[in-house]
Write a structure and sequence with these properties.
CATH architecture of the largest domain: 3-Layer(aba) Sandwich
Organism: Funneliformis caledonium
Distance between the termini: 101 Å
InterPro entries: Anth_synth/Amidotransfase, CarbamoylP_synth_ssu, CarbamoylP_synth_ssu_N, CarbP_synth_ssu_N_sf, Class_I_gatase-like, CPSase_GATase1, GATASE
Subunit structure: Heterodimer composed of 2 chains; the small (or glutamine) chain promotes the hydrolysis of glutamine to ammonia, which is used by the large (or ammonia) chain to synthesize carbamoyl phosphate.
Helix content: 10-25%
Structural class: alpha/beta
Pathway: Amino-acid biosynthesis; L-arginine biosynthesis; carbamoyl phosphate from bicarbonate: step 1/1
Number of domains: 3
GO biological process, one term: glutamine metabolic process
Number of strands: 25
Strand content: 25-35%
């Protein structure tokens, strides 16, 4: 007997179909009941695993060990290599491709508090109209490894070209899933960020992996550009970016507002060519700010001689503070996530910010001429400083946050507006006068 599916039929039509040996499909929506063939899992096999997200039938064991002694066993879904680094956690709910390619995570084992990670895969390598990567903050993964509670082996997103596991494997980054990330975060919050080891394989032998403390290295020198690079060269104002580990979206935030940007190596003495720039920008970056001595010295010299606008973000805030005479200290577990409140001490407004740092300025006593700009509403730590009379200021958070929030993106507008105003006051308004064409006399 043939089954026949119809949306809506009359009684006479149904009788006619039955008389011809055809059984109609009946669905009654009024009572939310459906009469159809019964369905059991025994009759049909489960849906196949998507071909673009292969899953091993025999998962590889992985083990995470904290220096404080705790050990967590799970499953590997990344590269088959061992690693060591500082274990830190982020409370971001989205944006794992941006976080993992953020140079500020250099040398760290990143623990995601979001339980499910990998569900939208990893996007392809596409560039925008300025030549910057659209979906990544740099051209590589910078964290040493990742720790997630539940890895989504099957992904779905219109920009995705590979799974998170495939991406980690391609870049040689180990990853562990199936561990209690809530317990790990409780430990990191209570005792502070700690060193860790990640072992991939059976029978972990952690004696083969030495603990590596990234804060003892100059991480900025590892992520900074080696040569100057320019973007949007025909912009109306010229900004020199001191690259301590700059994110692509910071550069995008500058060039899309009309600035011509030159990215400079971290230890480049920009004071020798400072007259070529209408403003100086000090970028974000990883690790211990006391390791970037040359950058601090260059900025200190600029504070005494360069009277044009200077703006810093994240590591830039720490560098500017050190150059002004402040000290820094290491936070217990840092501030990393997309939901950190920062209070503007000038107008009393509180904005939700994206943050990624493990150090902060000691701002109990401010140097002469300087004042606090922003304060963390959670722990009271410094979130920004500014000069009282000169155009120098910086913030600890990320106004350009890719993945959000965008509450403080206006700080880029303020900085570039100040740069343009300063340039007009310095050079005056330049206008373009077209060439006058004089018609030739006609010969009669």
């Amino acid at each position: 007997m043939t089954n026949f599916l119809t949306k809506s039929i009359s009684v006479s039509r149904a009788v006619s179909l039955v008389s011809h040996g055809i059984k109609p499909f009946v669905a009654t929506r009024g009572l939310a009941t459906v009469k159809d063939q019964s369905f059991t899992l025994n009759k049909k096999p489960p849906p196949p695993i998507a071909p673009y997200a292969p899953v091993s039938l025999k998962p590889t064991p992985a083990t995470l060990k904290l220096k404080s002694g705790e050990v967590y066993s799970g499953t590997s879904f990344g590269a088959n290599v061992h690693t060591s680094g500082e274990a830190v956690f982020t409370t971001s709910l989205v944006g794992y491709p941006e976080s993992m390619t953020d140079p500020s995570y250099r040398g760290q084992v990143l623990v995601f508090t979001q339980p499910l990670v990998g569900n939208y895969g990893v996007p392809g390598i596409f560039k925008d109209e300025y030549g910057l990567l659209k979906f990544f903050e740099s051209d590589r993964i910078h964290c040493e490894g990742i720790v997630v509670g539940d890895y989504a082996s099957r992904y779905s997103h219109w920009t995705a070209v590979e799974s998170l596991g495939e991406w980690c494997t391609r870049f040689g980054v180990p990853a562990i899933s199936g561990v209690d990330t809530r317990a790990i975060v409780h430990i990191l919050r209570d005792q502070g960020s700690t060193l860790s080891k990640l072992y991939i394989g059976e029978d972990p032998d952690f004696s083969k992996i030495p603990y590596s403390d990234p804060n003892e290295r100059n991480l900025v020198s590892e992520v900074s550009t080696a040569v100057p690079v320019s973007y949007n060269p025909f912009g109306d104002i010229k900004i020199g970016v001191v690259d301590c580990g700059v994110k692509n979206n910071i550069l995008r935030a500058l060039v899309k507002r009309g600035a011509a940007v030159t990215v400079l190596p971290w230890n480049f003495n920009f004071n020798k060519v400072s007259d070529q720039f209408d403003g100086i920008f000090i970028s974000n970056g990883p690790g211990n700010p006391t390791k970037v001595v040359e950058t601090v010295q260059n900025v200190r010299h600029a504070l005494a001689t360069y009277k044009r606008p200077i703006f810093g973000i994240c590591m830039g805030n720490l560098v500017l503070g050190l150059a002004a005479g402040l000290d820094v200290y290491k936070l217990r577990f840092g501030n990393r996530g997309h939901n950190v409140p920062a209070l503007n001490v000038l107008d009393g407004k509180c904005q939700i910010t994206s943050q990624n740092h493990g150090y902060a300025l000691q701002d109990n006593v401010m140097p002469n001429g300087w004042t606090k700009y922003y304060v963390n509403a959670n722990d009271g730590s410094n979130e920004g400083i500014r000069h009282k009379t000169l155009p120098f200021k910086s913030v600890q958070f990320h106004p350009e946050a890719k993945g959000g929030p965008q509450d403080t993106e206006f700080l880029f507008d303020e900085f570039l507006s100040k740069v343009r105003t300063d340039k007009i006051q310095r050079e005056g308004i330049k206008t373009f006068v077209p060439e006058t064409f004089i018609s030739q006399p006609q010969v009669v």
